[in-house]
Amino acid sequence: MEYLLFLVVGVSAGVVSGFFGIGGGLIVVPLCVLLGEEVKSAIALSTMQMTFSSVYGSYAHIKNRMYDPRRYVWLGFGGVTGAAIGAYLLSLVSAHFAALFFLTMLILGFLRIVASKAEGDKEAATPPQWLLMLAGLFVGVYAGMVGVGGGFLLVAIMTGFLGAPIKNSVAISLFFVLFVGSGAFAVYALSGMVDFAKGAFLSLGSLAGVRGGIWIASKITAKRHKQAIVAVYTLMIVVMIYKIAKGEI
């Protein structure tokens, strides 16, 4: 029964991953904690799940020509480097500090995405490789520390700072998550923090869910897509503030 619950969590995370261009950690981490996992264990499990979901999601977006992956490889390289650093830093800090860091980044991302244009800036050009790598490194450290792919924060950066359309930002974000998730997952696996049995059920569920999430995203307008992202940001901020205030994390 326990493994069936992890499968359901994986499906839910996959749908969210495909729709929002994230690794699914925003769903996996709190739900795994609800199922009795410690915060750090839940974070480690989420990196395994996001690695699998982002592989399929990235393939689907590239096949649909949402972006040219060759232009964003350095974004991924910066991300995987940052994720390894963040995963290492997590072992040095408390769960409470990680939760506060997570909340801070959620609020910053929320403010940028609210101020951005859903259709993007038509005059915006593809950022230089050094800037993409720097952005990837920053988001990667955050992702490695809190067990999420960093997708929400990257969508905020791509749309809010670099002027990319929301739908393209979501697609690029999932490609980025592929690098970040695999990097953080490798560190957690080598340190013995991953429960591979539970992670397998999470991952299988996410593969089924991510396809549905991408399909739903393709059926709505950019404006509606942005509104959905803002709504989830708001929900997660409220949940995190509530849990921190109650001393649960």
Précis, in short:
This protein is mostly helical and 249 residues long. It is built from ten helices and no strands.
Work out the helicity level.
Answer: over 70%
Helix-strand string: HHHHHHHHHH
The general outline is globular
Radius of gyration: 16 Å
How many angstroms separate the termini?
Answer: 26 Å
SSE-based structural type? mainly alpha
Average pLDDT, to the nearest integer? 81
Describe what you observe in this structure.
By secondary structure, this protein is mainly α. It has one domain (2-245). Helices cover 78% and strands 0% of the residues. It has ten helices and no strands. It has helices spanning 2-20, 25-34, 39-63, 73-90, 95-115, 129-146, 151-161, 166-190, 196-218, 222-245. Helix 5 runs parallel beside helix 7 (151-161), helix 5 (95-115) runs antiparallel to helix 10 and helix 6 runs antiparallel to helix 7 (151-161). The longest helix is centred in the N-terminal third of the chain and has 25 residues, at 39-63. The protein is globular.
Topology:
Layout: H1 2-20, H2 25-34, H3 39-63, H4 73-90, H5 95-115, H6 129-146, H7 151-161, H8 166-190, H9 196-218, H10 222-245
Helix pairs in contact: 1-2, 1-3, 1-9, 2-3, 3-8, 3-9, 4-6, 4-8, 5-7, 5-10, 6-7, 6-8, 7-8
Descriptors:
single chain; 249 residues; mainly alpha; 10 helices
